Amino acid sequence: MRESTFEKQDMDVYLCIDGGGTKTNVTISGRSRDTPDEVQILGKGTNQSSNYTGMQITQSYHEDGTTMDFEAQPELKTALKPAPFTKIWAGLSGMDGRSDYDILYKHLSHLFGLPSTDQVTLKLTNDCDLLSSQIQLIHSQSDRPCKGGIVMIAGTGSIATAFRFDSSSILQSLGRIGGHGYLLGDHGSAYYVGLITIQEILSFFDRRHLSSSSSPITTTTTTTTAQLSLIDHINLYNQLISTSSLITPILNHFKIDKLDDLMSKIYMNTNDQARKIAISSISRIVMEAAFNEKQQDKFALQILERTAIKLSELVYEMILIYNLNPEGLVLCLGGGMWSIYPGFKELVLGIMKNQFDVSWGWVSIVDLPDRIGAISLASSS
């Protein structure tokens, strides 16, 4: 058996994987056995999405059981023996239930040359759990009591998980809301921003085809509440979109010349992952327009306000379910939506405060969950 470089250096090495819907980040940390209090970052890397629900996984049923074949990843069939890591933490999006856990644990343990019965070296969780390390850090350093926290990821997808410290100051997961994927949920995510932006533009385009008039729709004394709500929505978005700066950059994003081609362009892409990323990427265009200091785009801002409400509802539902007091909690924010423009965080926190009367003890944006996870692994071993 070949001795690893780390073994020669008498060093314990830790690997943390943050597998998101758009990209995968990894960090390797190390701790010398001679100076165990010093944690070093030894390396980091980035690759494409590792959400296994988007990979080409085929399931074959046989009389003697079920076998899983990672067709898109033939390199998984050859294990790396031995992997030089003392502990590994893989936080992967799409890892939602026991069946997901069993599938992924089998292949990851094989990849790292670990026995499938080893539940100590390899820790496998949803990517949301990686951010809980920040809650533990604040709990250990704050001069105020920290009771736990809520991790909210708003990236390509969206999910929230609640955590609480038990009587032994061990952080326990209470449960999660969201994480249902772009087909069933992901409200408040980058995908959601792109989706409702496209929907509103296509609806506006349809209305312009049906009517040459640009005048607002009028109401009468017999207009019902439901009718009034729809009329207000149509009038608002007709005005916002007609003066919006978003149309041209979105056409450029999809490499088309006119709105007539937008829907067909989206459906022509039969690769689900590529189509999801193309729609999610519109969030950057929307944020740039909404937070433009010279000329704020009101249509873009309206889209982000709707998005912020969805995220606030996600968290507030968690607060109600578990009877949490947010003033004693950390709100940990992860995912690309928070790192693009700081104004989005302020928008969400403002809606939480003004519409849901929620104020937090601490608010922390975690840009590199894999780094925090790698440090946490090394520090707690």
UniProtKB/TrEMBL annotation:
<dbReference type="InterPro" id="IPR052519">
    <property type="entry name" value="Euk-type_GlcNAc_Kinase"/>
</dbReference>
<protein>
    <recommendedName>
        <fullName>N-acetylglucosamine kinase</fullName>
    </recommendedName>
</protein>
<dbReference type="InterPro" id="IPR043129">
    <property type="entry name" value="ATPase_NBD"/>
</dbReference>
